[in-house]
Design goal:
This protein is an alpha/beta fold. The protein contains eight helices and five strands. The chain is globular and about 50 Å long.
């Protein structure tokens, strides 16, 4: 891929803190990879997306009964890369980001009820932060994201995890190595 062609990347940002650890790590990732991506950031806390109510509307047509889905749908359809950037709270995603992900149910319903895959192959990148050193937390979140990423036809390229943010206030060696590994993968793909 030439350096003139940039992939479209949507960042589903799940932190309430615009200058917190997730934001710092996401900004660092964006600065290091901006030659490969056109970034659009969707802040789950700012957008105030309604939660899925399991009404079944999307089982018959591939959209949602709530109009706030249209923005999510537009971003997903235009993207080549899905980036989930989020803190981990109680071994899961914050509820506003979880609402965004749950509202992607029409894509899952399209596969199940209409036997359609709506998307060409996408890549996914996870940028996760957590206050503790609980190694299983990021694994669990990754597992939780697999169904929605499958419905988006997105394969996880990699993840960057910044652990122990309750005690470590600057990006540590472990996180930096994760970041470098992802950048190397992206550079080699492009």
């Amino acid at each position: 891929m030439s350096k003139n062609f940039k992939k479209n990347a949507v960042i589903f940002f799940g932190s309430p803190r615009e200058n917190g650890f997730t934001a710092k790590l996401t900004e660092k990732f964006m600065m290091r990879t901006n030659e490969f991506y056109n970034f659009v950031k969707f802040s789950a806390y700012k957008e105030k997306i309604k939660p899925c109510i399991a009404c079944g509307f999307c089982n018959s047509i591939t959209t949602c009964i709530y109009k706030d889905f249209e923005k999510i749908d537009c971003l997903v359809k235009k993207s080549d890369t899905i980036i989930i950037a989020s803190p981990i709270y109680n071994m899961s995603l914050p509820s506003p980001l979880k609402s965004v992900i749950d509202r992607m149910q029409p894509y899952f319903a399209s596969q199940i009820f209409h036997k359609e895959n709506l998307f060409n192959c996408k890549e996914a990148i996870l940028i996760l932060t957590l206050g503790s050193k609980n190694k299983s937390a990021s694994k669990l979140v990754r597992q939780q994201l697999k169904p929605v990423l499958n419905s988006l036809n997105a394969k996880i390229l990699g993840q960057i995890v910044w652990e122990n943010t309750d005690r470590v206030k600057e990006i540590d060696d472990f996180t930096q190595k994760n970041l470098e590994k992802i950048i190397k993968l992206i550079t080699n793909k492009n």
